[in-house]
Specification:
CATH class: Alpha Beta
CATH topology: Double-stranded beta-helix
Helix content: 10-25%
Largest sheet: 9 strands, mixed
Shape: globular
CATH superfamily: Clavaminate synthase-like
Length: 284
């Protein structure tokens, strides 16, 4: 079991897996945090790519205030936010729903010109079992590639769309009762296949099966064999961690270097999370 360690005698950081992920104890994120605590949390995020703060109690205003210490909250384009807090998107799966929102490996809204730097997800209602979330470290996925594949990918860009069929299916139940008025297939972007993290300088693989359709300058048929290899490669177990949610848990992940996959294994039960995404920059 990984040893816990202290930062500024306030944060107890407990790594969850060798690849990424850490639980952080000893902090009440609903309160106004001092600059040292914010800096320590940001450093933990950069080091572990996804951090989990269990046992939080947020009002929407408090969750939004916490998020603003790390970036600018932005509105998700396809699903309505809370009436008084449009930057907070309720991620709800009702008892009768079959599809869970975003239930496929992906990076959040990579189809935007400036995808978010990070996402925060707060657990309000959970099923009695199931509903875990997997995360995958894309630094490690890139570093494990052969030198020849790195050379090939280094000069490529990829086309990402919001309406790829499998991800559209994961939105169907949510958009029946919370659509923001768009169909879901309107957005497209072009980003480097290997992006350089703007804070750490490390390279990460930046494609995903939910949104990436082809390489710039190539057809889908030409792109598919390499993309299919990358989609399988980037989610190998040794690159991942699995988080079991508890009431009040907050997850905060670095969307620039981590992918995630919410598992749809709780049919007949309700699950409600509040999500905030933070503005990012142009991948390079």
């Amino acid at each position: 079991m990984a040893q816990s360690r202290q930062i500024e005698q306030t944060l107890d950081i407990r790594p969850l897996a060798g690849a990424l992920g850490a639980e952080i104890h000893g902090i009440d994120a609903s309160r106004e945090l001092d600059d040292g605590s914010v800096s320590a949390l940001r450093q933990a995020l950069l080091e572990h790519l996804v951090i989990f703060l269990p046992g939080q109690e947020f009002t929407p205003a408090q969750q939004l205030a916490f998020a603003r210490r790390f970036g600018e909250p932005v509105i998700y384009p396809f699903v309505k936010g809370l009436e008084d807090f449009p930057e907070i998107t309720p991620i709800l799966k009702r008892e009768e729903d079959r599809n869970n929102f975003g239930g496929i490996w992906h990076s959040d809204t990579v189809y935007q010109q400036q995808p978010p730097m990070g996402t925060m997800l707060y657990a309000l209602e959970l099923p009695p079992y199931g509903g875990d979330t997997l995360f995958a470290n894309q630094y490690l996925a890139y570093e494990a590639l052969s030198d020849g594949m790195k050379d090939l990918l280094g000069g490529l860009k990829a086309i990402h769309i919001s309406g790829k069929s499998r991800v559209q299916q994961t939105r169907t139940d949510m958009m029946k009762h919370a659509s923001a008025g768009m169909k879901g297939d309107e957005l497209q972007s072009c980003h480097p296949v290997v992006r350089t993290h703007p804070e750490t300088g490390r390279k990460a693989l930046y494609v995903n099966t939910a949104h990436t359709i082809r390489f710039e300058g190539m057809t889908e048929e030409e792109s598919t064999p390499i993309l299919e290899f990358l989609f399988e490669h980037q989610i190998q177990p040794e690159f991942t961690c699995r988080f079991r949610w508890s009431p009040g848990a907050l997850a905060f992940w670095d969307n620039r270097a981590a992918m995630h996959y919410p598992i749809n294994d709780y049919q007949g039960f309700r699950r409600l999370m509040h999500r905030i995404t933070l503005a990012g920059d142009n991948p390079f």
